[in-house]
């Protein structure tokens, strides 16, 4: 039986973390000896990991998604020791910096394991963190060690091809899987408490960390414009360092009473069930997991036409509105138009089925037999 390891730095609330939990669960269900290796296994995604998956937790302290330079060196050496002892047949890693660490660890361990690094970010965009800059600089080395490199969208694959000679022949595009809809009585009660009362207008929802790349400022400004013409409420699912600033901006725009920020939500399906529209205002999305989750709920979508995932998911705008990045006016107009003439839910659910865990699982399993 093949020994498979999925490596991700933590099990926080991010998209890459959820994808690896889903794929580890799927491959262990298919009979593979599967382990998930995390430098810190704390976080909401841990609760979704199948007990059949072996969890390897280094228990390293993490702060705001960072481990620090000394800890990174320690983690690399601990991974090297793990690979020597465990002797995996295949290693999957994500996101970008984790790919570099995994590639170096495999080299130091003298491991001949098949290596499948997964790339989730638009590589043409600037990176602020030193680790992210280093990972992009060393992408060529990672891909050279890779058996196959996984790009979560065709746009990310194109970025990799431009960044590394010979990448095109090694890169395979495999979209992220649809996370199964989670539903609980507690989540339904919380969502119900946020449902719009009669006369309050439709509820518009978005989901994502409250960070720069999600560009919630533009969304708030667009919503303020929309509120000038009709009643509506806005629900921001997620948490992050920009929360105080966004709350202040909502007050400044005079929309604070119509904007709710309940924090990180592990079960968004209940909230999608009470909403009329999903909006994504990001400046960059390698894929955009939240879009397919909203589509699976039959929720109409308005998204920025950012690099790269939304255009691919929405089939060039056939299944949802695409607007320029950072354009609050265009976003407000598209929201108004979509509320008036929403995309039929059946079309959205049909498209979401393309990302079902069985289909994506087949693509991953095919890599193991290549």
Q: How would you describe this protein?
A:
- The protein is an alpha/beta fold and 370 residues long.
- It has helices at residues 15-29, 69-86, 96-109, 130-137, 139-145, 154-163, 167-170, 185-194, 216-227, 243-252, 269-272, 289-296, 309-313, 328-340, 345-352, 357-368; strands at 3-7, 33-38, 54-57, 90-93, 114-119, 149-151, 171-173, 203-207, 233-237, 259-263, 277-280, 284-285, 301-304, 307-308, 321-323.
- It has 16 helices and 15 strands.
- The strands form three sheets. Strands 3-2-1-4-5-6-7 form a seven-stranded parallel sheet. The chain has a six-stranded parallel sheet with strand order 10-9-8-11-13-15, sandwiched between helices.
- Helix 10 links the parallel strand 9 and strand 10 (259-263).
- The two termini are 16 Å apart.
């Amino acid at each position: 039986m093949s020994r498979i390891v999925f490596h991700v730095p933590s099990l926080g609330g991010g998209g890459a973390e959820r994808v690896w939990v889903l794929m580890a669960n799927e491959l262990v269900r298919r009979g593979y000896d599967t382990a998930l290796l995390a430098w810190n296994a704390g976080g909401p995604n841990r609760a979704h990991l199948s007990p059949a998956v072996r969890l390897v937790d280094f228990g390293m302290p993490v702060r705001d998604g960072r481990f620090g330079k000394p800890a990174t060196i320690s983690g690399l050496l601990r991974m090297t020791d793990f690979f020597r002892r465990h002797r995996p047949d295949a290693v999957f890693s994500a996101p970008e910096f984790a790919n570099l660490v995994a590639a170096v660890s495999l080299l130091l361990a003298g491991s001949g394991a098949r290596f499948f690094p997964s790339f989730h970010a638009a590589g043409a965009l600037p990176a602020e963190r030193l680790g992210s800059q280093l990972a992009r600089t060393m992408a060529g080395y990672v891909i050279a060690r890779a058996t196959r490199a996984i790009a979560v969208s065709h746009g990310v694959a194109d970025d990799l091809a431009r960044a590394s000679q010979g990448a095109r022949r090694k890169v395979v595009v495999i979209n992220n899987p649809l996370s199964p809809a989670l539903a609980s009585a507690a989540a339904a009660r919380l969502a119900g408490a946020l449902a719009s009362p009669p006369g309050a207008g439709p509820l518009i929802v978005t989901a994502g960390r409250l960070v720069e790349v999600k560009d919630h400022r533009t969304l708030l400004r667009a919503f303020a414009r929309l509120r000038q013409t009709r009643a509506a409420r806005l629900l921001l699912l997620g948490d992050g360092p920009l929360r105080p600033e966004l709350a202040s901006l909502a007050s400044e725009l005079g929309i604070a009473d119509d904007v709710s920020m309940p924090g990180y939500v592990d079960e968004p399906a209940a909230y999608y069930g009470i909403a009329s529209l999903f909006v994504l205002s990001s400046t960059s999305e390698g894929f955009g997991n939240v879009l397919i989750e909203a589509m699976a709920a039959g929720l109409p979508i308005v998204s920025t036409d950012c690099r790269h995932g939304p255009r691919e998911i929405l089939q060039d705008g056939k299944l949802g509105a695409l607007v320029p990045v950072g354009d609050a006016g265009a976003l407000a107009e598209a929201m108004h138009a979509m509320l008036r003439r929403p995309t039929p839910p059946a079309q959205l659910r049909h498209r979401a089925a393309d990302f079902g865990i069985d289909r994506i699982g087949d693509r991953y399993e095919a890599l193991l037999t290549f």
